[in-house]
TrEMBL record:
Source organism of the structure: Vibrio tasmaniensis
Name of the protein in its database record: Mobile element protein
Length: 50
């Protein structure tokens, strides 16, 4: 999922998602078709709520 999709799923702002992922050192797992960063949800969930 990209940052926008994660923000919508967890009802958070994109800025909040971005800040929490950076704080937890969660990097993108791969690039999507439009070259957007895609993240592994197994890493994203704990990073957002820990």
């Amino acid at each position: 999922m990209n940052i926008t999709q994660i923000a919508i799923t967890f009802d958070l702002s994109r800025d909040t998602v971005r800040k929490r992922l950076r704080a937890a050192n969660v990097g993108s797992a791969m690039k999507g078709k439009k070259r957007e960063d895609l993240y592994d949800m197994a890493q994203v969930g704990p990073a957002l709520f820990s």
